[in-house]
Amino acid sequence: EELLMYADTAMNKAKSEGKNSIRLYNRDIKHEVIKKIDMQNKLRKALELDEFFLQYQPQYSLKTGLIRGIEALVRWKSPSLGIVKPNDFIPVAEEMGYIVPLGKWALKKACCDAAKWEKEFGYTGLISVNVSARQLNNADFVETIREAIVTSGVNPKKLELEITESMFISSFETAVPKLADIIDLGARICLDDFGKGYSSLGYLMQLPIDTLKIDKSFIAHTETNMIKSNIAASIAALVNDLGIESIVEGVETEKQFEFIRHTRTNDLQGFLFSRPVNEDMIGEILERNNRGIPFNGVLKN
Ligand code: C2E
Ligand code: CA
Ligand code: CA
After folding, report:
1. pTM summary value
2. Ligand 2 geometric centre to CA of 163 (Å)
3. 81-104 tens-digit pLDDT
4. Is the pLDDT of residue 222 over 90?
5. Distance, CA of 137 to CA of 168 (rounded, Å)
6. Which residues hold their Cβ within 5 A of ligand 3, which is an ion?
7. Is the dihedral of CA 182, 185, 190, 192 positive or negative?
8. From CA 169, how far away is CA 189, in angstroms rounded?
9. For the CA atoms of the chain, what is the radius of gyration?
10. Strand 67-78, strand 82-84: pairing
11. Is the beta carbon of 90 within 6 A of some atom in ligand 1?
12. CA 107/CA 125 separation, integer angstroms
């Protein structure tokens, strides 16, 4: 039994690394598996124990410098593991199906917060929520969105769902009609991380998207290597001609900003303007925005 369990562990490891790979069982794999099982067990209780919270990162219109939307980013504060980053726990949550209740919670919380900001600060921009493949493939996905809109009272036109291309690779036929249902509800679709992994321009024509988010890797090397930045500029121009809004994420430096401001990009998001912040910081950011202060007031003229 023990041997079979080890073989199974090695097989799973090989599978997770892609097709046609071979792995031998060893102590490192064993530790990894134990770590993962431990995380799974802790995740199972985390929602109940209220260990998740959302941080928010504003997105700015290049033209006006004012907020066009706010993206919700989930965080896990585990008493034993500390603050765990989404890239470390979301893949595990996806694998165990736990992303479905977690995603539902994040969606509802973000919608409720956006409705609250409208009442308190007159905020009428978008609220962006990340959606994973597993959530989209779940049978009650559209119902979940409808419910979040109804119970929060958020204006559905202000809800933008961020999806990625990888979701469509295995289930294009079933996923696309769901997007149509979401659009019927009044919400918007943003294709996130465009250019990371398998980007296909074909998706731009086949998916009903409102916004295309150009992956942060494109402008990460504006200072030293312009090739990718120039590609990002071309993508922005191309999608604009298709009537799709473009947003560049990962803007960290004034040099990057200088480059982007001369492109046809519509919107910007990045550490230069604001890192993701806790909910209690949003009021201050929105008040500055209401006073017409562009880009959160961080750029020198
Ligand atoms: P993402 O959707 O591409 O989110 C953007 C990530 O880039 C965030 O990382 C954000 O903190 C980071 N970022 C923002 N500005 C900059 C910048 O100027 N430079 C750099 N280097 N990074 C920047 P984070 O919060 O660690 O999230 C990682 C990923 O986890 C997200 O990538 C998203 O795919 C996933 N995620 C986060 N929240 C949720 C959620 O509620 N549901 C689902 N399904 N996935 C989520
Ligand atoms: Ca995103
Ligand atoms: Ca992204």
Report:
1. 0.94
2. 8
3. 999 999 999 999 998 999 999 999
4. no
5. 10
6. 192-193
7. negative
8. 17
9. 20
10. antiparallel
11. yes
12. 16
